[in-house]
Amino acid sequence: MVRGLRAVAMALILLLSVWSPPAAASRGIDAVLVIDSSGSMKYNDPLKLRVPAAKLFVSLLGASDRVGVISFSDLGYPIIGLTAPQPVSDQHRLFHAIDKISSRGAHTNLYDALRSAQKMLIREGDSNRRRYIILMSDGKMDTGHKALDKSLTQRIKSQLLPQLRKQGIRVDTIAFTVNSDATLLGAVARSTLGQFRFAHTDADLHRVFTGIFESTKHPNMLVVKGGRFLVDNSVREVTVVASKSGAGVRIVLQDPHGVRYRARTAPSSMRWFASTRFDMITIVHPAPGRWAVLASSGGDKAYVLTDLKLMTDSGTADLPQDSEPVLRAWLTRAGQAITQPQVLATTRMQVMIRQPDGVTGSYQLDAPVLPVGKTAGDGIYSGRAPLWKVGLNKATFIAKGKTFERETVQYFYVNPAAVALPATPLPVAAAAPAVSTPPALLPPTAAKSPPPAVVVVHQPATKVISSGPKPLSFWVVLGIFVLLNLVGAGIIMLVIAFRKPQSEVAESGDEQKDGSGEAE
Question: Does domain 228-306 have CATH number 2.60.40?
């Protein structure tokens, strides 16, 4: 039976791994923002921070992406269809549509919200692109009629979600308060291979939307530590998202020469968008060196357009609990994998796994092994990391060289061991990569081809920060329980077997006594 469960689990994982084809990744995304406009948002988001947060998401997308906006309360109301955020005139159209999000609705019809977004993607979207619905709500299904609420909730589960899954439409959901139907929103996300997030306060919304951007677009970032980040010569553009602790905070950006910039005095080479909870600053052709974000509350991001990129194909499929999958990452320059030993020898690669409960473990990835007789390898760093906690995990890959730093993020779900328990850890090669696999080093006239899908098995990656003792899995506990019961049953059977001959001897003796008495 266990072997049967393992086979089923592996089949399910392989099915999940075909979700994000590389061809679609290169053609941008179609996304629909579905934002709650019910009256309760007056109290849960009094400053309408969901509006600048949605604008932030739109601003981070590229010219190949398209976004639509739907406001919903009693029904879903399309405000603008799928529109590219570039040129600037179209971005302003999207911003104007987002500004129309209100807090005047009487009800919360989650079914019609999803159905309206589905119609927009089917009617205007491209099936060859990755398609997303991003749904945010602060409540539960509420049409004003309990029987209808129950019926529509059932239709979401039995009809709408299977359709969305079949159509390849992923739904990311955001629960805005504890009053949200987290169970339903979570089920909607998981049924479509999407992700469920909880925004504890309105101040968290921009962080939630940057997380969604990272999970959909997999951008390259600079490592930001203590508000400081290193810009190298290959960076063509950097977009900084700096968090504020309150509306009165003024963000200051300092360049490597000590010159400080503010929103009101920013030069024309900077695009500065200021809101009450975050600032977004885009610098074209930034000066190389250490930059600093001053007066932020932490958690800053620095997204870059660059020729030097950190790539990974890990985390593109659900993974089973208690597995240790091979995680891989590599560097590219102008689309070609970096394989020169002198560069790789001075570059360190690590991955930080943030579990659903917030506990973080850091693991070093092994440097590429140089084949015997070769002057260069495939450039792939790899190692294993244990996955113990069920739920949404965040993997942050970090590369640090002498003159550069890069970071990229992958989000993935870990399923319970009882649901997915393969005989061996799931190889990363089974998952469809979100980016192209790095090519092996070939002569200039030779055709390019990807490296072998199977990576040389490494020892577990060196753990830098412990994430706590590993808990016993369900199957281990069950095995111990069954073993103890078998031992107990065996002891009882031995006692019974031992006592039976004794009782037979006693009965025989009694019969002999009785017989001798009768003879007398």
Answer: yes
